[in-house]
Amino acid sequence: MLHTYRELFAAPGSTAFSLAGLLARLPLPMMGIGIITMLSQLRGSYALAGAVSAAFVLSYALLSPHTSKLVDRHGQGRVLPWATGLSATGLAVLLASTWWQAPDWTLFVGAVLAGCMPSMSAMLRARWTALYRGEPRLQTAYSLETVLDELSFIAGPPLAIGLCLAVFPQAGPLAAGLLLALGVVALVAQRSTEPAVLARGKRSADAVAVIALPHVAQLACLMAAMGVIVGTVDIVSLAFAAQLGEPGWASAVLAAYALGSCGAGLLFGALKLPTPLPRLLGLGGLATALSTLPLLLVGSIPALAGAVLLAGLCFAPTMVVAMSLVERLVPAHQATEGMTWLLAGLNVGVGLGAALAGRVVQEGGARAGMAVAAVAGLVVLLLAWLAARRLRGRDAAAPQAAPQRWATLP
Fold this sequence. Notes:
The protein is mostly helical. Helices cover 77% and strands 0% of the residues. Helix 2 packs antiparallel against helix 7 (120-132) and helix 3 runs parallel beside helix 8. The longest helix has 32 residues, at 366-397. The radius of gyration is 21 Å and the shape is globular.
């Protein structure tokens, strides 16, 4: 397996942009929880802190696909510094508002502007796509990116919380902004691996938005449903551990979820499966749905850890398959935007899942919150099955259409 991943970095420049990506991907998971930790200390209101953090997440989800569209048209080197500058300006407004006790509405203005943060995960996947388009190694690269995303969501929140509590309340979001700036500078300096942009006269496909292309919106909704499971697991794990009088074990439970996802992602990336992608998507949806059912039966911390470990095993492979399908569904010069829509859907789902599970847990306890994940799993199964059926049907309907990307679906 190590040999498979070592082959990825044989391409010149791949190591450099991957290292830059380690810095650039941390700010997103740091920002949301950093805002909550900062404002809960300074304003004494979890409701306000949650609302401002939600404004950032929603702004990011809505704006990042449009930023990626500009990247596809003009290149990472030209767009990323401007988008990062806008995000940094919003962060400065947010931090200044807390420092000088400005009215609450200024916090929302800063959070919305900070949401101009580009989707760095999509930028890195686009670089891998430019290097290995049409090769089996691309699936391995997507698997690696999914694992690194998982690791950033493990390391980012504790880092932000620790800085806010140990240094000063604004330290977490401030560090996120500095890491974003450093990561973007390091990434755009790697010009040799930057994906090429299509000449202006050849952009006829841009007349159709990527989200309007066949099946892209459906895959984005699938990722949102998967995100609901992730957000639910986060909230329910915290609530369940607290309900049993062992709140400190919540971090171990969430680590089990991440461990399952990372391990499955690495293994899946090393495999060279002959199974067609649409069938893999359907199987992934089925496995994801089934993996949520044990959550309904847990009665102890070890049982919960085992259940979320199982759920995590299905997450990364299904996400990798969805990303691989989008790479084939959208024109090459719109790949960044296509992948960003899926990542935006995932982030919206995480926020929605946390909100829904939080409300259900508040009313009915931690066990009731498990049902949110089970319902989301059913939605994942339905969307994956419909997408797999339509993808197979389209592929079978036009087997000789060489210009169509469907003819190349493995």
